[in-house]
3-dehydroquinate synthase
Amino acid sequence: MTITVHTNPSYDILIENNCIRQIGPYATTLLPAAKRCVVVADTHTAPLYADTVLRSLQTAGILASLVTFPAGEQSKNLSTISRLYAAFSQSNLTRSDFAVALGGGVCGDMTGFAAATWLRGIPFIQIPTSLLAQVDSSVGGKTGVDLPEGKNLVGAFHQPSLVLIDPHTLSSLPTAFFSDGMGEVIKYGCIRSRALFERLETEDCRKYLPEVIAACVDIKRQVVEKDERDTGERAILNFGHTFGHALETLQNYHGLTHGAAVGVGMVLITRMSEQNGMTAPGTANRIAALLHRYGLPSVCTESMQDLISATAHDKKSTGNSVKLILLKDIGHCCIQKVPRADLPRLCREMQ
């Protein structure tokens, strides 16, 4: 299955088992002037897939090299980006060459940011190997790194040239990482697809994963095409992220995974909006039950005061206000601009 994202530039997302074995022919067709590339992978994905990817690229006549970094959100920082720049320099990457992100969301975000800023921009190809990256972060062109002050505070918009989604790579995921991705899958059901949400409630999604991936990717495609630079509707993709990112920051990226933090954030924000009459009663409990079904938490262990303080650097903040993404009901969401001074009161009401 191929889904085309009509941004500037446009690009294809291929969802097909074993497609990563064909990255060489895809790359030479798409980027005929390219002579070299650097494949970026973490210490989890490199032993599993790097040889396959490098072999395909080299067979296609591309001089390909590999650089790795320690797996985990803790590596998503400017120090790692400096290591990627060094690898790009050693490989003599020019503007006609490219990078490949082979891994999950951390790898994709950093490789994309390094590609966006190396020589003021070179192409890159996404090969997402985690569920979270396949359904969400590999699509849309958002790249970046974390700072001690908050998540994804440094970044750039840089669309990939191609996204190769190989569902077979998910078979190597530990259960915890699969659950992590389900946090984002459930988010898509919450904001845009009641049918997806209800199917997740009644069927084990592992039995129809390619359909789930395609459904989430297509929702994101529709939103990104309307708002490529994240100035309006695209904010709905951050449902659960205001509190989710705050949780990750408070735990210094050593606690809840991203998907788990987003899940808790979805429940928190929905309990708040229910208490204020903006969401159908019982919605938060349905979300919590679905999170539990897929092995994710729904309860916040941090104090609300600390959580609110940690939202200070939320990227959806404008002036003294923050854009909250709220559900009217499952499958229907809205953007509500709220003065930051009102957050403590709103959060007290949901406790």
